[in-house]
Amino acid sequence: MALWARQASRWCCLLNTSRAAGFPRRLRSCGSPAQTCRKFAPLALLPAGKDGVLWKLQACRHVSVGSCSAPDSAKDGSFSSLESNLPSPVKQEQAKVETLPDLNAKILNEDWDDIPPSSALEEISEEEAVQITAEPILPFQSTTLRDYVDHSETLAKLVHLGVDLSQVEKRQKAGQLLLTLDFEKDIRKILLFLKDVGVEDNQLGPFLTKNPYILGEDLEALETRVAYLKSKKFSKSEIAQMVSRAPYLLLFSVERLDNRLGFFKNELGLSVKKTKDLVIRLPRLLTGKLEPVKENLQVCQIELGFQRNEIQHIVYKTPKILTASKKRLKQTFDYLHNIMGIPHHMLTRFPQVFNSKLLRIRERHMFLAFLGRAQYDPAQPSYISLDQLVSLPDEVFCAEIAKASIQDFENFLKTL
């Protein structure tokens, strides 16, 4: 009986092998309801040549539930072949021989087309190592445009053109704008437009450094603004001068430009020609804020006591007074008028004195007063104009105005 149990166990193993290979399990009923018996037809592996194995159908005895008696041949110590007891269909199946490929891993790897991936620890030759190039990783975000220059053709060409990216990235959203533009598609046409307006090649880099936003403007809108300036009788050279000195000028719409020109004409009471001349000499008046201009005009009229016609003359001769610091403007006027005794009409005649540093005015006036030559009345002898006081270099001032040496002037300054 033990031998029969071992043989039954072997048949079960063979059955599991047949299931793993994808073969169906054959069931046959014994026909006896009391004996729930099944005929297993396990497939036993038998040698079948070099390249395959022979799957041969073997039969089994009926096994009754509740009894496990061994066959007679097993009791005799032998196990004869059961082929004679197999029915004819089983005998026919037994004769069938099927050859399957060997499941050896080496043979399967030879049949596969895909090459197994190489290991990261695989050693390579020095020649292969030299040929490996590591591209720099493009940062997802950065605070400087320098990290993107090697990856962006647009940035590389702008640097070659003379654009200072370290200054551009300080301007709000200017760096993001440049990274979204294509040089050939978006930027080239703007550069050609600026050259046609009159911006020199060596000025393109500094111009775009100050105003990179123009690269994102619509070309047709830019051409419309230039056409407006031409309609106001500005010559091509004057437009080129204004655009170069005030890079943000072309960002202003036609309506805003027209309002700015009208403001200066009406507030100052200037003619059209003088208004044009004013903005040509200081074009940032058209692009700057108007509040400081209005405040300075009020300071000149109310606090400094100038008449309207005097203000017109001062502003036309020295436009920078409109954008000067109110504090510095009042301090300079106080020293000139109250300390040096210069009247309003003299200050109106030489308004450029307001552009000079107060320290320079004070040092030279005190030196002339020390020498007894501080005379600013044109009706008196040894008269010294305000223009000579502030505009001449130290050597010329000492030799021609103070009638002293430069060493005397420097020694005097040490006593202050």
UniProtKB/TrEMBL annotation:
<dbReference type="InterPro" id="IPR003690">
    <property type="entry name" value="MTERF"/>
</dbReference>
<keyword id="KW-0805">Transcription regulation</keyword>
<dbReference type="GO" id="GO:0006355">
    <property type="term" value="P:regulation of DNA-templated transcription"/>
</dbReference>
<dbReference type="InterPro" id="IPR038538">
    <property type="entry name" value="MTERF_sf"/>
</dbReference>
<protein>
    <recommendedName>
        <fullName>Transcription termination factor 3, mitochondrial</fullName>
    </recommendedName>
</protein>
<dbReference type="GO" id="GO:0005739">
    <property type="term" value="C:mitochondrion"/>
</dbReference>
<dbReference type="GO" id="GO:0006390">
    <property type="term" value="P:mitochondrial transcription"/>
</dbReference>
<keyword id="KW-0804">Transcription</keyword>
<keyword id="KW-0496">Mitochondrion</keyword>
<dbReference type="GO" id="GO:0061668">
    <property type="term" value="P:mitochondrial ribosome assembly"/>
</dbReference>
<keyword id="KW-0809">Transit peptide</keyword>
<dbReference type="GO" id="GO:0003676">
    <property type="term" value="F:nucleic acid binding"/>
</dbReference>
<dbReference type="Pfam" id="PF02536">
    <property type="entry name" value="mTERF"/>
</dbReference>
<comment type="similarity">
    <text>Belongs to the mTERF family.</text>
</comment>
